[in-house]
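Protocol step 4 of 5: obtain the predicted structure for the target chain.
Materials: sequence only (see below). No template structures provided, no constraints applied. The aim of this step is simply to have a reference model before the mutagenesis design in step 5. Sequence pasted as it appears in the construct record:
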Amino acid sequence: GAADVYRAFSVPPEPAMLAAVNRLLLRLSAPDAAARDAASAELTALGRRAVRAAMAVDTETLHPEAAARLQAFIDANARDPRTPADMRADLTFVIDAAGDPDPMIAREAKLLLGERTKLPPPATLPGPADGAG
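Step 4 output (structure tokens):
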């Protein structure tokens, strides 16, 4: 999931996406349940890059409801319980990440592949859009 690659590879969130996630934080803890649910739906609609932005938010400073909803969004996009180091040590994981739709993740994974294999990083690798990743 998106949260897995963003945990494994330290890339900064896109400023515009971080701003979009931050705009939803107050509504995630709104008194009205419908408003909270709408904000959660908007967060989900932002897509996988919002996962990285959500992971950058300091949930300790949030209202508990907003923190729980933000964490639920991240958890819904996570599938791999391993540590970031363990994920990066898994060559299959790194190869899959090299085909990630986020160019920053793909770049970091390709660089790691180059380090691990002692070969130049591949210019392109098949990714999810090719049906091979």
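Step 4 remarks: Helices lie at 2-8, 15-28, 33-46, 48-56, 64-76, 84-89, 91-98, 103-117. Residues 129-133 have pLDDT under 50 and may be disordered.
Proceed to step 5.
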